[in-house]
Amino acid sequence: MRKRLLPAILVAAALALGACTGGDDTPDKVAGGAHTLPGPAPAGLALKPPATEAPTAPRFSATLTDGADIDVSTLWADRPVVLTFFSSWCTICADRQDAMSELARTYQDRVVFLGVAGEDEADPLDEYLRTHKVEYPVVLDDSMNVWRAYAVREPPAVIILSKDGRLLRGWPGGIDAAALDTQLKEHVLG
Fold first, then answer.
1. Helix ranges (DSSP H) in the chain
2. 28 phi and psi angles, rounded to 5 deg
3. Whose CB has fewer CB within 10 Å in the chain, the N or C terminal residue?
4. How does strand 81-86 pair with strand 157-161?
């Protein structure tokens, strides 16, 4: 009887321990946090050279949703960057976000998407990022300094920056993912 009872007790203890610890020792990752930052650019990444007359983009440092600091120039050092300015309460942003998230996944090795959330609060922003499967880094622009530097007055807005940090195109009022895809192919991807 004891021999049959011991395996059952061990299984029950393992299940109970798993339930107490959540079954996983890894903490939940914050949507838009440092874990979403890209690794090195792929070797041989074919990019179009930026127009020499394109103005230099404003450089900024900001804090990601998980508290990690980021400098945008480290992102544009080896590949183009798409800045997406949005707020969780913006209905146009929400209507376009699923397709934008998919486009970001499509280009994840070649183009860095960086969300810039302004006029937002932590809980609604986190819900927005998870609902729309935003898997790219997102900075919190509570002071609205990044928005002002890029002349963004209201969400949505989208801006393409070249590999070396030049302003290539921008859309106050945003742009849908299909049109942005066309613009990326025209302006930055070789």
1. 2-21, 72-76, 91-106, 122-131, 145-149, 177-187
2. -60, 135
3. N
4. antiparallel
Residue 85 pLDDT exceeds 70: yes
- The CA–CA distances, whole Å, from 97 to 71, 101, 180 equal 24, 6, 12
Q: Are 41 and 109 in contact (CB under 8 A)?
A: yes
Against a cut of 0.90, is the pTM above it?
Answer: no
Task: Give yes or no for residue 170 having a pLDDT over 90.
Answer: yes
- Please give the DSSP secondary-structure letter assigned to residue 140: E
Q: At what angle do helices 91-106 and 177-187 cross, to 10 degrees?
A: 40
CA–chain centroid gap for 167, Å, is 19
In whole angstroms, what is the distance from residue 189 CA to residue 137 CA?
21
Note whether 187 and 85 are within 8 A (CB): no
Distances (CA, A) of 25 to 10, 125, 166: 20, 25, 42
- What share of the chain has pLDDT > 90, as a percent? 78
Q: How far is CA 77 from CA 67, 115, 166, in A?
A: 22, 18, 11
Q: Kindly list the distances between the CA atom of residue 182 and the CA atoms of 81, 120, 157, 176, 185, in Å, as whole numbers in the listed order.
A: 15, 30, 17, 10, 5
